[in-house]
């Protein structure tokens, strides 16, 4: 799957925040826009935008957030609910890693946090080269959830 990454606009952030609804076990991923605000998704007017809308052709299929700290970037990503569980995860994550590698040369590693019970995401992350690091608890909408920190090391040789 060939994907295109563009700095996220306010309209794209609104569409993602208000239109994407995850169901079942993934419902807690649904964004609480009133609590977070759209600034969680966009860096309006900044050329150094770190929030990206991800497109396949003309369809916005996901998002990628990159928070660099020295040579490690914490990343947050998500796929459009219509794509969940349909075999796109590995390709989506590989494309995100390739984008980071080629556009953020100072980044030597990427880390992400996956819900501990999201076995599919953990499996896909491991298939793409991530390794489990440490467990964490995170509060989402007043509830605490178990997450696993995972890390990917870029080959910069």
Automatic annotation (TrEMBL):
GO terms for molecular function: acyltransferase activity, transferring groups other than amino-acyl groups. Residues 1-155 form the N-acetyltransferase domain. Transmembrane segments: none annotated. It comes from the Bacteria. It holds the Pfam family Acetyltransf_1. This is N-acetyltransferase domain-containing protein. It comes from Shouchella clausii (Alkalihalobacillus clausii). The lineage of its organism: Bacteria, Bacillati, Bacillota, Bacilli, Bacillales.
């Amino acid at each position: 799957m060939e994907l295109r990454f563009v700095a996220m606009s306010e309209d794209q952030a609104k569409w993602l925040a208000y239109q994407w609804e995850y169901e079942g076990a993934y419902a807690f991923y649904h964004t609480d826009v009133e609590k977070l605000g759209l600034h969680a998704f966009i860096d309006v007017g900044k050329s150094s935008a770190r929030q990206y809308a991800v497109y396949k052709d003309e369809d916005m299929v996901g998002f990628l957030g990159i928070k660099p700290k020295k040579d490690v970037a914490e990343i947050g990503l998500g796929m459009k609910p219509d794509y969940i569980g349909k075999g796109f995860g590995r390709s989506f994550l590989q494309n995100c890693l390739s984008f980071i590698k080629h556009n953020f040369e100072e980044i030597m590693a990427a880390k992400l946090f996956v819900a501990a019970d999201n076995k599919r995401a953990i499996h896909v992350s491991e298939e793409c080269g991530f390794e489990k690091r440490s467990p964490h608890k995170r509060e989402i909408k007043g509830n605490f959830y178990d997450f696993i920190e995972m890390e990917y090391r870029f080959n910069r040789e």
